[in-house]
Design a protein that fits this description.
74% of the residues lie in helices and 1% in strands. It is mainly alpha-helical and 323 residues long. Strands 1-2 form a two-stranded antiparallel sheet. Helix 4 crosses helix 8, helix 5 runs parallel beside helix 7 and helix 8 crosses helix 9.
């Protein structure tokens, strides 16, 4: 597998150009907001989303200012949702650093999230990027719907597989789909935006199932599975599959652990072992590969070029990553 740095290398100039547009979009005259924005900009992550946008435009031989604005809009919207998520989840950390709400409290964090959303809208409107604004706004709407659907279904903790797919399609895959679609939409000429959106959606489904599997893989420090999703009462694909394979009494016991004993290490360890023994990990892995392969098969309907190869490597990276 190519490393992310190797995948980035051919578009290093384009990524630098995007960074410039993104930084200019959050330059401020309000001192407090400026300090917070600089703090946010320091947490630079993997830059997966801008990479996808740039390569999706490059697939049609057309990286331009509109491409950088598309990547900027997605980063602004995504960062806004993360800031709001940390408030909702009462989370004090994000990527190993203090969250905005941990440092500046909830009120300021919510306002910062609102500011980022409005900046994204204004960037799009200023340059009349209506198509890209439509794509990204729909993704944010779906992300909200997915989160609410997950909260609603989590109360009963008996989610069927089709509902699970609907949740992750909206909650996770919609944003990745918008990266592929908006990159294509920024390109000039004849482009199939809907096919690109579908490629991203399938890749996003694989990405989320990979996240599910992390919960059952051994952590770096403890040598034990993290079980974080279980503690948060999230119904993941390995667990959903396992609940359909075990006896009624074991199913009741497993659901009871997720509901009431999700911080009891012994009980959670037993639950994880039940998921492994029932074939939940293997089943989820197979489904993840199905989504990834479907995404790549659709990508291969476009002519072979460097951008297509890089997008394929990015899709593969989503399921081969270590965290």
């Amino acid at each position: 597998m190519n490393s992310l740095n190797e995948i980035k290398r051919p578009v290093a100039e384009e990524l630098a150009a995007f960074q410039k547009v993104f930084r200019n979009s959050v330059k401020l005259k309000v001192p407090l907001l400026d300090v917070i924005m600089r703090y946010i900009l320091k947490a630079k992550g993997k830059q997966m989303r801008p990479l996808i946008v740039i390569y999706s435009a490059k697939l049609f031989n057309s990286v331009n200012d509109s491409t950088y604005r598309a990547a900027t809009l997605i980063e602004l919207m995504h960062t806004a949702t993360l800031v709001h998520d940390d408030v909702v989840d009462d989370s004090s950390q994000r990527r190993g650093r203090f969250s905005i709400n941990a440092l500046w409290k909830n009120k300021i964090a919510v306002l910062v999230g609102d500011y980022l959303l409005s900046r994204g809208l204004l960037v799009a409107l200023e340059y009349k990027e209506y198509k890209i604004l439509d794509i990204v706004s729909r993704a944010v709407k779906e992300m909200s719907e997915g989160e609410l659907l997950q909260i609603e279904k989590a109360r009963k903790l008996d989610i069927k597989e089709d509902i699970y797919y609907e949740i992750i399609r909206k909650k996770t895959a919609s944003l990745i789909a918008s990266c592929f679609a908006s990159g294509a939409a920024s390109a000039s000429g004849d482009v199939d935006i809907e096919k690109m959106r579908k490629i991203g959606e399938l890749a996003g489904m694989a990405f989320q199932i990979k996240d599910d599997l992390f919960d059952f893989s051994k952590g770096n420090n403890t040598g034990k599975p993290s079980g974080i999703d279980i503690k948060e009462k999230k119904m993941t694909l390995p667990l959903i599959y396992a609940l359909n394979q075990v006896s009624k009494s074991d199913k009741r016991k497993m659901i009871n652990i997720v509901k009431r004993y999700n911080t009891n290490h012994k009980k959670v360890d037993w639950l994880i072992e039940m998921v492994v023994q029932s074939g939940g990990i293997q089943y989820a892995t197979e489904k993840m590969l199905e989504f990834m392969n479907a995404s790549i098969d659709l990508l291969h309907e476009f002519p072979d070029n460097e951008a297509r190869n890089s997008l394929e490597q990015l899709i593969e990276f989503t399921i081969e990553r270590k965290k």
